[in-house]
Write a structure and sequence with these properties.
The chain is α+β, with helices and mostly antiparallel strands and 197 residues long. The protein has helices at 11-22, 35-62, 68-101, 142-147, 174-184, and strands spanning 2-4, 7-8, 29-31, 103-106, 110-116, 122-128, 132-138, 149-156, 165-172, 187-189, 194-196.
Length: 197
């Protein structure tokens, strides 16, 4: 579905298919966040808010404040939960857009990071493979260990303090993916002055 020029829900498929035609099919890889991102950042906040809403609704129905107190009770209830729902729903929508429309495309010559920033804006950053210094997997946290999702970090040449690191987050089984990426990218050998697989 294409609403605006920068909001196309099939854009990642178009970019991937174009890259497959340009390079060999097995030399292109599209990477998106794992489903755990959707569960943790979209479903859990919405479900938590809904449970909290139901709990307070039951308490409000059972607890009688009498006369004018009931009107105040319901006014407070809707003052808290009305804006609260808008905030939680807006954040969940933004995270859903990140989940569905953010992706990275790996080709033999560059790694491209596509970041959909809401409905009106999309950011594209590319990293030439000859500028990649290292590819590492960052592992930290109990939840990440349980579900085996981590981050893959591309450290670019000339980066001393991590400001120019490029990251793929919420990646399932990242060590396998790292090996696939290394199989695809062609590292430019500075000493030989040629591309090497």
């Amino acid at each position: 579905m294409k609403l605006f020029s920068n909001f196309d829900t099939t854009y990642h498929i178009k970019v991937f298919n174009k890259a497959k035609k340009e390079y060999w099919k097995d030399k292109v890889l599209m990477v998106q966040r794992d489903k755990i991102y959707f569960v943790l950042n979209v479903l859990m906040p919405l479900l938590s808010f809904f449970i909290l809403f139901l709990l307070f609704l039951i308490i409000a129905l059972v607890w009688d404040w009498g006369g004018i107190g009931n009107k105040i009770k319901w006014a407070l209830f809707w003052i808290v939960f009305g804006p609260g729902f808008l905030i939680v729903a807006w954040r969940a929508l933004r995270k859903y857009i990140d989940y569905k429309l953010d992706f990275a495309l790996i080709t033999p010559y560059q790694v491209s990071f596509y970041n959909q920033q809401g409905i009106f804006s999309r950011q594209l950053r590319t990293l030439d493979v000859d500028k990649i210094k290292t590819i590492t997997v960052e592992k930290a946290g109990l939840l990440r260990s349980l579900f085996n999702f981590w981050s893959i970090v591309f450290l670019s040449e000339g980066d001393m303090d991590g400001r120019w690191s490029w990251m793929l987050n919420y990646i399932h089984a990242p060590e396998k993916l790292k090996e696939k990426i290394k199989d695809i990218i062609r590292i430019y050998d500075q000493t030989e002055g040629q591309w090497a697989n």
